[in-house]
Design a protein that fits this description.
Blueprint lengths: L1 H9 L4 H6 L4 E5 L5 E6 L4 E8 L13 H8 L9 H11 L2 E6 L4 E8 L3 H14 L4 H18 L3 H13 L13 H6 L2 H11 L5 E7 L3 H11 L8 H4 L12 E5 L6 E9 L6 H12 L2 E2 L11 H9 L4 E8 L4 E9 L4 H17 L3 H16 L5 H14 L6 H9 L3 H11 L6 E6 L7 H6 L7
Parallel strand pairs: 2-6, 7-12
Antiparallel strand pairs: 1-2, 3-5, 3-6, 4-5, 8-11, 8-12, 9-10, 10-11
Helix pairs in contact: 5-10, 12-15, 12-18, 13-14, 14-18, 15-17
């Protein structure tokens, strides 16, 4: 009985203890500008990855999709390790490789046993510096990507968000998709991909991050051994100065009455990564809430909009988002509804926005802050999310922001702050709208714009 009690108590950690017991993130900068960061814990596994400050925003009309194309080729072999040898070496470690490309970041990472960390660093360095980009593999992946582009069209949520970026940042790099256009993928050459790597894969724009059972000193030693060949960029060239992607209040409507449900996304311009208003807007989104018909709770959910959605059958689901970039962002909501419920759902959602600007209460803010704290602590679950958190933080903020600091920022938010910040970004602002599906009932843009403020006497 005593042993069982000890086993149970070992897993009981208070919220405050969880924040205080997080290991410190150690950061070391190499001579070529590469930053090496790690968080050491008593884990039998580790995740090691390279986060690079480059994405589709750094592409132009002609090479849009190059980063996504390169992601497909990253693990297909290097100049030192042909495709089969590379795969065999990874499988012999029992490791898992993955990567992703977004509008401002590219990441390649490996999850492996802690003892294999030096080998993981060597493999990542080989991928970043010596990717083979064989002509045969380029042609093979070209067909794979073209098939993926066809399949992406069936994911209406992703399609809607791509349209939202296209109308909100029209004519700029943020308005383009990460995957690129079919025409670009068809004509992309090996020379285009080599040029993309040579232009953007510079050491000061990279972060080698690790989490789990890793020693920071051993990680730095491995980085010095294998990443010293990454080209150094002069300070003024390390991070290219990008033109501001101006937000435009406008809309894109793609009507297709053959589809069963309508997808609607509405957003205003949000703040960039480093803006302190982000924390307040996250609290506002937690008040706004989210809903799906598969959720339990029915009309007893804490979100007022979710309660209305259940009582009046307004939608199948809705979600909020606060998508940040280096100097701008998109703050809004997305919902899926039946064709005849669009007007009612949009009316209620915009009404909830106006209520956030004018009538937010302290009890709502308290509940929302607890939701955020729960989501924040969930970041501790696993070496991969911790590693990603380290890499993205160093790229976006220049440092790893501790959870204690996030907690203090959340604690400082009150109802007045929510009302003031929401008024700053939402009230009487021109929104960007993207709509796909049977959207005949979607009101005229000017009518939607008129619901972005209240006339009160």
């Amino acid at each position: 009985a005593t042993l069982l009690a000890l086993a149970r108590n070992r897993g009981v950690v208070t919220y405050a203890q969880a924040l205080q017991n997080i290991p410190e993130t150690q950061v070391t900068a190499l001579d070529n500008g590469l930053r090496v960061a790690s968080e050491e814990s008593n884990q039998p596994t580790c995740t090691v990855g390279v986060w690079i400050g480059v994405g589709s925003r750094y592409e132009n009309e002609k090479n849009n999709g190059a980063g996504y194309f390169l992601e497909h080729l990253a693990f297909k072999g290097t100049k030192k390790r042909p495709g089969a040898a590379f795969e065999k070496e990874v499988e012999s470690m029992g490791a898992h490789l993955s990567g992703y490309t977004s509008r401002e970041q590219t990441a390649y990472y490996i999850k492996a046993l802690s003892k294999d960390m030096p080998k993981a660093v060597e493999l990542l360095a080989d991928v970043v510096q010596n990717c083979a980009l064989e002509e045969s593999q380029v042609e093979k992946e070209r067909g794979v990507i073209l098939q993926e582009l066809k399949e992406l069209d069936s994911n209406l949520t992703d399609v809607t968000f791509d349209y939202l970026h296209a109308t909100a940042f029209q004519g700029t790099a943020l308005g383009r998709t990460v995957e690129g256009t079919t025409e670009n993928i068809k004509r992309m050459t090996r020379a285009d991909l080599v040029s993309y790597v040579d232009t953007n894969f510079k050491a000061p724009r990279m972060v080698l991050a690790a989490a789990g059972g890793v020693s920071h000193k051993e990680l730095v030693d491995a980085a010095k051994q294998h990443f010293s060949g990454v080209p150094f960029a002069y300070k003024e060239d390390a991070v290219p100065v990008l033109p501001h992607c101006r937000f435009t209040g406008s809309e894109i409507r793609v009507r297709d009455d053959a589809l069963p449900h309508a997808h609607i996304a509405l957003a205003v311009e949000g703040p960039g990564w480093a803006d302190p208003d982000n924390v307040v807007l996250l609290v506002a989104n937690a008040i706004f809430g989210r809903y799906d018909r598969t959720f339990g709770g029915g009309k007893n959910q804490s979100s007022r909009l979710a309660t209305l959605a259940v009582e009046h059958n307004l939608c199948h689901s809705f979600q909020t988002f606060n998508t940040s970039y280096s100097d701008t962002g998109l703050f809004g909501f997305h919902f899926v509804s039946d064709p005849l419920s669009i007007d009612d759902m949009l009316h209620c959602a915009q009404g909830e926005w106006m209520r956030l600007c004018t009538s937010t209460t302290e009890s709502e803010v308290k509940r929302a802050k607890n939701i955020l704290r729960n989501a924040m602590v969930a970041q501790l679950d696993g070496t991969t999310p911790v590693c990603e958190n380290i890499g993205s933080h160093l790229l976006n903020y220049g440092r790893r922001i501790p959870l204690e600091e996030w907690d203090s920022r959340i604690s400082a938010v009150d109802a007045r702050m929510v009302r003031d910040v929401c008024s700053k970004y939402i009230y009487d602002k021109c929104p960007a709208i993207a709509a796909v599906g049977p959207i005949e009932q979607l009101l005229d843009y000017n009518r939607i714009r008129s619901a972005m403020y209240w006339i009160r006497f």
